[in-house]
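Q: What structure does this chain adopt?
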Amino acid sequence: MLKAFVTANFTSKGLDRLRQHMEVVYEPWGQTQKLYLAEDLAERLLELAADVLILEVDLCHEEVFEACELKLIGCCRGDPLNVDLELATQKGVPVLFTPGRNAAAVADLTVTMMLAQLRQLIPIHNLLASGKFNPEDPGEFMALFQKMTGLEMGGQTVGIIGLGAIGRAVAVRARAFGSRVLACDPFVDPKNAAAVELTDLDTLLRESDLVTIHVPLLDQTQGMIGARELALMKPTAFFFNLARAGLVEQDAFYQALKEKRIAGAGIDVFPTEPPPPDERLLYLDNVIVTPHIAGATRDVVRHQTDMVLNDLLAWLRGERPIHLANPEVWDRRP
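A:
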C-alpha cells in the first residue's frame, strides 16, 4: 500500500478520502509551525518510507531526490517554486500543483482595499477611536461629515494589470458593482476577457481610478511600474499591489504617495517580508497595508485540498492529472 506524507494544510474530509487509497501521515505546517529544509525533509521521508509527498511551504530540492524514490509530489501552491521541477522531471516524478487556489481570496482582499480607500474607512475609524470626533458641536460635525464623504465603487473605472486567475476574479467582482473594467495583458486569450475592455498599459493607467496589478515577478516584469507609469495616473487614483513588491519601483512609488501625486494605495507585499518597523510605506496616511495575507483564507485550504486530491486520484486511476507542472513526465510514460 502506498504511503503519503502530507505537510500541506489539508481538510479533514480530504484526508479521509486520501486514506481510502493509501496510508497517510499528516503533519501540517499550520499546526507544527515547522518548515522542512530539503535535507531534513529527505530524512523524514526515508524514516516514513513515503511514496507520495504533499507539501506547501517545505523545500523539495536535490537532497530529497537523491535520497528518496518518490512516485508523486503534490505542491499546494500556484507555482511549485519550492520543488526542483527539473530534477523531478529527470527522475520521472509527476508534480501536481494548484494554480488559482487563492484567486478568490486575493480578489476579495483587493476589492476590500478598494472599498476601504473609496470610503476612507481607516482614517474614519482612527478619527472615531481618537476621541476627537465631537458630534455635539454642529459646525465641527458638519465639517467632519463632509470630510468623511466617500465614493461608490460602481462609479469608478477599475484597471487590472494581468488577467490571469486573480485578475479575472477581480474583474468579476468589479463588474458586479457596476464598475467599468479595463485590463492589460499581452498574453490573454480574448475568450477570457469578454467582460472587460482590453487596452494597453498607458491607457489603463491614464483612465483608471483604481489600478491593481496581478502579474508574476519575472525579469520582464521587474519594476514595470516606475516613475513614468505612476505619472500617468490621475492624482485622484489609487494603486493596489497584492502580487509582488518587485513589480513596482519602490522609491518612485513612495515619492508619488508621499507627495500625493496619486491619492493612495493598498499594499500586501513588501521588499522585505515581514516588513521591518522602519518600512517607510507603513507610515503614510494614504496607504492601507497588510502583511502578505491576501491568499490566506480557510477556504484556500479547501481549494488546494480538492485540486491536489482530485488530480492524485486521477493519477491513481491511470488518468492524466489536470494540474501537472511537468507534463513531459506523463507524455514519456512507457
